[in-house]
Every structure is written in C-alpha cells, then in structure tokens.
Write a structure and sequence with these properties.
Layout (H helix, E strand, L loop, with lengths): L6 H22 L6 H14 L3 E5 L2 H11 L7 E5 L4 H9 L3 E5 L1 E2 L4 E2 L1 H7 L4 E5 L10 H11 L2 E5 L7 E2 L2 E2 L6 E5 L13 E5 L2 H10 L4 E3 L2 E2 L10 H10 L3 H18 L14 E2 L5 E4 L3 H10 L29 H9 E4 L7 H12 L4
Parallel strand pairs: 2-3, 2-6, 6-7, 7-10
Antiparallel strand pairs: 1-11, 4-5, 8-9, 8-14, 10-11, 12-13, 15-16
Bound molecules: pyridoxal-5'-phosphate.
C-alpha cells in the first residue's frame, strides 16, 4: 500500500520540535494574537523576501480579506482560472464581487494571459492568478495586463509555498498574496490557518483590522470586520516547520524528477515545468487519456491517488449561476477529465516511484 499522503511520517520526523512549540503556548496560556504569531509573521515574510505577513484563519479567508483590503467588493468583477480549487472562488465571492472565469494554458494548468486580457470588462477590479499544483503562473504578461487596466493582483499561493518564478518567490508579484496552511499543504498547520503577504504597509494595517473585528485600538473599531486569526498554537507549529520547508521542497522536486524519468515511455503524461518556473510539486498531476480506468487500476493495486479537480468551477452546482455553459473553457474542461494526482510528499521513499511507474505500465489496455 502506498498512501497518497502520509502526515504521520512527517510527524515522526519532527514530532519533538512541534510538541515543544505547542508546549510553549500552553505554558504561556496566551492563545490568540500573541508572540508566536508575531514571530511567525516576521519569519514567513523573511522566507518570501517580502515586507509584511498577516496571519488569518484559512487560505479562503486570506483571499477574501486580501481582496477586501484592496477595495474589492459589491459590483466588482474578479478574474480567476476555471480549473482552480473551489475555495479561490468562495474567497472572491465572500467580498460580494462576481467571479469571472478564464481558460488555462494546457501546458502549465495555469491562467492563460491572453484569455485574461479578453475577459476584462469595465467592472473588473482584480485578478487572482492561481499557482495551481505549485507551478507558477506566467506572471510577467499577467502583471502587464493588470498594469494596462489598473487592476489589483492577489496571487493564490495556497499550493505554492517556496515555488519561484524567474528566481523570485511566488507571493511577491501582486499587491498581495494568499497562503493556506491547511494540514496537507507544503507548509501545513495542525488545523486551519492562512496568511496574506504584501509589500504594502497600509494594506497590511487594514488586514490586521479586518481579521480582528475592525479594531483599530482596544475597543475602538474603525472598520466592519471579521474574526479570522491564525491562532498561537498553529503559529507555533508553523514556526517549527518553516525551517524544514526548503529541504521538503527539494525532496518533492527530487521525487518529481524520478517520476518524470520513470514515466518517460508510459501511457501517461507527466507535468511540465516551464523554463521560467521552479515548481514546488504540492501536487504531481499527470494526464491520462483513460484517466478513470487508470484510477480504478491504481485502486486495485493499493496506490493512493486523488483527482485535482474532477469538476471545473463553472460546472459546479454552486456556481451554475455564473452562467457559463459546458464547453466554455475547453482546456480547463479537458484537464478536469484527464488529470490524476500521484503520491508525492517529502518522506515518500525513492523506491515507491519505480513501484508506482510499474503499476501504471501494467494498466490493461
Ligand atoms: C487549499 C486551497 C485554498 C484554500 O485554503 P483553505 O486554507 O483550505 O481555506 C485556496 N486555493 C487553493 C488553490 C487551494 O489549494
């Protein structure tokens, strides 16, 4: 049995450090907005080489609050990719803005900059490029479109901790970027968590109010706000894990290169890495023309897998109201029909890759 992901293996490797971190919080008995969060925010901003980090309750909240801090709300349109994870669109919709979807570049599974330019209307206020699976979007043409039309850019970095575009970390390109620390993300807490990073001091200050009921100073509230804070226990766990993120990313990249070689003559297509990209392989999504048969075969052979994602946003029951018919985004729809995610996590032994490739090669025709 090869599991899709094994969080227990990571806990065995760093359990002592995370238990000490949690104990620190328990002994201090200060649980919300305290010194662990302050320290994590500085450390994560330093890791990304940006100025400000504001810890919030989840990645979805990070998208919602980042857009709100940039003035996006009712009446606005926000553009994102049709193949993203649902929370991207849930975060956009929470601002009151209308999500507008665009198709993807089939080679990178990320937002197609040409389709983006065509989707802009006079109501468009922001773009949320999604570095899906951990492969960076082609940011230069996206930023150019944004500049030409005066649009804000909020990167969805929920799958892109440590990925780089032309040598610079994802999360440092737009006005702000949203991270998720959901337990299975490349940097995961032991519960829900998220953060917004930004180089803009004013945006960071607004976010600190928005996450804490709009409070400016104790009992004086200058904004309508929310309750969305990264708590002290999660911040302490993330501080224990952050120093390992570089080595974990290297392991994922090593495993991806083994996969690519092992799948060279197979019936499936491993993901590509664009020349300007350093993929962090949150997900290793292959394409297969007979994906559903492959899935059934992996199940009988005890190889874990997942599908990210089987239904594009515009065909989800909750978003049919956006009014997009099937066939509107052919590349995104084809990807949803063909992709399958194979196990990839830092503790996965090298030998597993060969075993998985053998199982795939044995798929009955
Ligand atoms: C996980 C994820 C999110 C949401 O993160 P949560 O912390 O679960 O709210 C948003 N966008 C993408 C692409 C994700 O993978």
């Amino acid at each position: 049995m090869i599991p899709f992901v094994d969080l227990q293996a990571q806990y065995e490797a760093i359990g002592e450090q995370t238990r000490q971190a949690i104990d620190r919080v328990l002994n201090r008995a200060w649980y919300i907005l305290g010194e662990e969060l302050d320290a994590f925010e500085s450390e994560f901003a330093a890791f990304l080489e940006t100025d400000h980090c504001v810890g919030v309750g989840s990645g979805t909240d990070a998208i919602h609050l980042a857009l709100r801090a940039l003035g996006v709300g009712e009446g606005a349109e926000v553009i994102t990719a049709a193949n993203t994870c649902v929370p991207t669109v849930a975060g956009i919709a929470s601002t009151g803005a209308r999500p507008r979807l665009v198709d993807i570049d089939p080679d990178t599974f990320t937002l197609d900059p040409d389709a983006l330019a065509e989707a802009i209307t006079e109501d468009t206020k922001a773009i949320v490029p999604v570095h899906l699976y951990g492969h960076p979007c082609d940011m230069d043409p996206i930023l150019e479109v944004a500049r030409n039309h005066g649009l804000k850019v909020v990167e969805d970095c929920a799958q892109a901790h440590g990925a780089t575009y032309k040598g610079k970390r994802c999360g440092t390109f737009g006005e702000a970027a949203a991270f998720s620390f959901y337990p299975s993300k490349n940097l995961g807490a032991y519960g829900d968590g998220g953060a917004v990073v930004t180089a803009d001091e004013e945006v960071a200050a607004t976010l600190k109010k928005l996450r804490n009921y709009g409070e400016e100073q104790r009992y004086t509230h200058t904004l309508g706000g929310f309750n969305s804070r990264l708590d002290e226990i999660q911040a302490a766990v993330l501080r224990a894990k952050l120093p390992h993120l570089g080595e974990w990313t290297n392991s994922r990249r090593h495993l991806a290169s083994l996969y690519t070689e092992a799948l060279l003559d197979s019936s499936v297509e491993p993901p590509e890495e664009a020349p300007w990209a350093e993929h962090c392989y949150h997900i290793f999504a292959i394409r297969s023309a007979n994906r559903n048969q492959l899935a059934g075969h992996l199940r009988t052979q005890d190889v874990g897998y997942q599908i990210h994602y089987p239904i594009p946003i515009h065909l989800q029951p909750a978003y049919l109201g956006l009014g997009y018919a099937p066939g509107t985004f052919p590349h995104a729809e084809k990807a949803c029909a063909e992709v399958l995610s194979l196990p990839i996590y830092p503790e996965l032994p090298d030998e597993s890759i060969g075993q998985i490739a053998k199982v795939i090669a044995a798929l009955p025709a």
